[in-house]
């Protein structure tokens, strides 16, 4: 499996652009990437971003996400703001896109999957997405801190008809 760095960056920009120019929370971004990658693999038997995922206590986490978002900040494609929303809790990281995504980098099936994930999961917060991923076979079938294998996506039984 190869990490598709440029495509990965465009996926993040696309998610931001379609969700009101920002994704609120590291957890939300991580889970949206999980659904993009695992739904795409389940439907097409191909990798999208090529990232690996670990089973962490709060759900699947893309191993390269923080490195990629840091690169995007350096490239002035993304801004990450830490906002203290609730006292006693960690600050919420808000990912704001500073560039438009290069949609031409996506195949038709990739763009359809991105739009499906945004429609199905984009309105949910990080905690709601965490709860959803905890119920899925890829996460529940993997020991904590171990790599989640893409092949476990086939045990989810996602219905891709009617885009729901």
Widest sheet: strand order?
Answer: 1-5-4
The share of residues in extended strands comes to: 15-25%
User: Which geometry do the CA atoms define?
Assistant: globular
Distance N to C terminus: 28 Å
Instruction: Please state the average pLDDT score.
Output: 94
Return the structural class.
alpha+beta
Topology as a string of helices (H) and strands (E):
HEHEEHEEHHHE
Q: What Rg do the Cα atoms give?
A: 15 Å
Largest sheet: 3 strands, antiparallel
Q: Give the number of domains.
A: 1
Helix content: 40-55%
DSSP strand tally = 6
Provide a count of the helices.
6
Question: Regions with pLDDT < 50 over 5+ consecutive residues?
Answer: none
Topology:
Layout: H1 5-18, E1 22-24, H2 26-44, E2 53-56, E3 59-62, H3 65-74, E4 78-83, E5 92-97, H4 108-121, H5 126-134, H6 137-140, E6 147-148
Antiparallel strand pairs: 1-5, 2-3, 2-6, 4-5
């Amino acid at each position: 499996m190869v990490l598709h760095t440029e495509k990965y960056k465009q996926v993040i920009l696309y998610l931001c652009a379609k969700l009101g120019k920002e994704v609120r929370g590291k957890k939300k971004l991580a889970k949206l990437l999980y659904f993009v990658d695992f739904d795409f693999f389940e439907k097409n038997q191909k990798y999208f971003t090529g990232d690996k995922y670990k089973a962490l206590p709060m759900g699947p986490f893309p191993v390269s996400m923080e490195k990629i978002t840091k690169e995007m900040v350096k490239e002035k494609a993304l801004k990450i703001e830490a906002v203290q929303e609730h006292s006693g809790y960690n600050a919420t990281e808000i990912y704001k896109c500073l560039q438009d995504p290069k949609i031409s980098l996506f195949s038709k099936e990739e763009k359809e999957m991105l739009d499906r994930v945004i429609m199905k999961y984009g309105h949910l917060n990080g905690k709601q997405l965490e709860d959803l991923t905890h119920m899925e076979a890829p996460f529940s079938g993997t020991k904590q801190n171990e790599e989640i294998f893409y092949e476990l996506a086939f045990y989810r039984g996602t219905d891709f008809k009617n885009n729901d």
